[in-house]
Amino acid sequence: xxxxxxxxxxxxxxxxxxxxxxxxxxxxxxxxxxxxxxxxxxxxxxxxxxxxxxxxxxxxxxxxxxxxxxxxxxxxxxxxxxxxxxxxxxxxxxxxxxxxxxxxxxxxxxxxxxxxxxxxxxxxxxxxxxxxxxxxxxxxxxxxxxxxxxxxxxxxxxxxxxxxxxxxxxxxxxxxxxxxxxxxxxxxxxxxxxxxxxxxxxxxxxxxxxxxxxxxxxxxxxxxxxxxxxxxxxxxxxxx
Length: 240
Hints:
The protein is an alpha/beta fold and about 240 residues long. Helix content is about 25%, strand content about 20%. It contains five helices and ten strands; from the N terminus they run ααααβββββββββαβ.
């Protein structure tokens, strides 16, 4: 869904570019940034590392060639898919036929892991409730309900349109990505299996309608509230 809607080319800027750079560092295709320029994780909100420069283009081409993709240096659907598959928390980042990552990649992963994975938000509380949270989505009512030890909170949601309905079923939170870039709003909650995701929107007037290609869209303030109260592994039940 989301991969087909964000294409990055040389000269692009923004958090989505920083996200690509961060993932290529994790996979060993880029060296760790110099001290003071390590703000290349996806929670940068558009700071250093968000420019698609020549070095990034060459790294993208090298990654594409290693994955049997067209090495055009453009981050499109196929490249996004491979990047997220290889850097998913539930997928090994290093294939058996790939040499061990170089030392600088290990240092980058350690440094990035030590930084906050959740960018500042006025809706963010201490993360103590996250492990005990769960989410229910009621498609007929176009409503998402977050349950935490403190109680429940309901939010209107845009759901899949009739020709691309949101698939009902059981999911888990697979990844929490702040500032994913347009058109995903300010937060993206990626689910597994990869049939659906929850994110913000750049078109708030559509929230509450059946208009998406299958994903669930919330107002940005609402998705931030949910984002900061869940964790990787949080269960998500979607009911028809």
